[in-house]
Design a protein that fits this description.
This protein has 359 residues and is an alpha+beta fold. The protein folds into two domains: 211 residues, Hypothetical protein, domain 2 (Endonuclease III, domain 1, Orthogonal Bundle), CATH 1.10.340.30; 128 residues, Alpha-Beta Complex (Nucleoside Triphosphate Pyrophosphohydrolase), CATH 3.90.79. The protein is 42% helix and 14% strand. Strands 1, 2, 3, 4, 5, 6 and 7 form a seven-stranded mixed β-sheet that branches. Strand 5 and strand 6 form a beta hairpin. The longest helix is centred in the N-terminal third of the chain and has 16 residues. It is elongated and about 80 Å long. The chain starts with a helix and ends in a 6-residue tail after the last helix. The protein binds a DNA duplex (11 and 11 nucleotides) through helix 3, helix 4, helix 7, helix 9 and helix 10.
Length: 359
DNA sequence: TAAGCGTGGAG
DNA sequence: TCTCCAAGCTT
């Protein structure tokens, strides 16, 4: 007797009523799965609704421009997800006659779709009998079978996919995968799992050994560096200068206030800013006043960003030396330019206070 | 293979 | 304030 009947019975009664379940289509399933990568359901829901209002189908997405796609995605993070989803939609519409692949192998060829997402879409949208393993399922399986290896190690990962496949109920893969995820999100949580209310507690080896909170075994985590960063709000005639970041890498394709990281050789924050503006724009600026200190944690490092109101020195014309593009933007138009969180905070403060030319 | 990639919520 | 970590993928 496996845990699966109890699991499916529980899911039948307790499945969450989510927007992409309430009204289901392959496209909606796809978008939801991409948004849900490394992101919690409650965070995703409002983004999903806005997305569907603006890009109701594959054709609408494929014909959109990347900036409007990034603008909708702003705040959700991992922006390559948005760029890849956009690219993939163009591929499906232009090269596949608008028909999404229905198998994991076909889906995985599209940018942004890896092993988990391919299995999730194939099982949920196309009723294929394939097992998926995500963070929730990884935790549930590691506890059910008391997996001793680190779950994210190559060997642990291989065993988890084997466990998921071994227990797959034929003809019910979509419900099975989603039930495992809902169980992980609602009952079998990372901290203090609700074992008394768990429908499969009787099958749980970690629970029977009292080690459920020690599963899954984690890999050691690296320390994150903390950088000091400066940024310039360069003001001129009611406008500010924005730079568009390179298309790949951190915040790819998003706009920002130019600046950069404090180096050992810099005499101070203002010297750092003058150096960075020289490197990035080839101009000299005069620094008028501080404009806030912003702390933020990215995936791999933390920053404290010091912003300054600045003005170009006489006769200086900014050149685009390191960005995709630079552009003078009216303060009231800043909301139309997709930005990461810190730059959005600076932009919002500019909008709120109005711009006062500093010289 | 391991590092890079955002942000927000929970404890 | 800090740590963990959340429906992972790409290079």
């Amino acid at each position: 007797m496996t845990f699966v009947p109890n699991l499916l019975d529980w899911y039948d009664k307790n499945a969450r009523d989510l927007p992409w379940r309430f009204e289901q289509s392959p496209y909606r399933t796809w978008v939801s799965e991409i948004m849900l990568q490394q992101t919690q359901v409650d965070t995703v829901i409002p983004y999903f609704e806005r997305w569907m209002a603006q890009f109701p189908d594959l054709q609408a997405l494929a014909s959109a421009d990347e900036q409007s796609v990034l603008a909708i995605w702003e705040g959700l993070g991992y922006y390559s997800r948005a760029r890849n989803l956009h690219r993939a939609a163009k591929i499906v519409v232009n090269e596949m006659d608008g028909q999404m692949p229905q198998t994991p192998e076909g889906l995985e060829k599209l940018p942004g779709i890896g092993p988990y997402t391919a299995a999730a879409i194939a099982s949920i949208a196309f009723e294929q009998d394939v097992a998926a393993v995500d963070g929730n399922i990884r935790r549930v399986l590691a506890r059910l079978f008391d997996l001793r290896e680190p779950a994210r190690s190559p060997q642990g990962e291989r065993k988890l996919w084997e466990m998921a496949e071994a227990n797959l109920p034929a003809g019910h893969a979509g419900a099975y995968n989603q039930a495992m995820m809902d169980l992980g999100a609602m009952i079998c949580t990372p901290k203090t799992p609700d074992c008394p209310n768990c429908p499969v507690a009787a099958h749980c080896r970690a629970r029977s050994l009292g080690v459920q909170e020690e599963r899954p075994v984690k890999m050691a985590r690296k320390k994150v560096p903390h950088l000091t960063v400066t940024a310039a709000v360069i003001c001129r005639d009611g406008q500010v200068l924005l730079a568009k970041r390179p298309s790949r890498g951190l915040l790819g394709g998003m706009w920002e206030f130019p600046g950069g990281t404090l180096e050992d050789q810099d005499a101070g924050l203002e010297a750092c800013l003058r150096r960075e503006i020289g490197e990035e724009l080839g101009v000299e600026v005069s620094i008028c006043s501080p404009f806030g200190e912003y702390r933020h944690a990215y995936t791999h490092y933390k920053i404290t960003l010091h912003a300054f109101l600045t003005a170009l020195s006489d006769g200086q014309i900014p050149q685009n030396l390191e960005s995709q593009e630079i552009r003078w933007v009216d303060v009231l138009d800043l909301s139309a330019y997709p930005m990461g969180k810190v730059d959005r905070q600076i932009a919002d403060r500019l909008v709120g206070e109005g711009i006062h030319d500093c010289l």
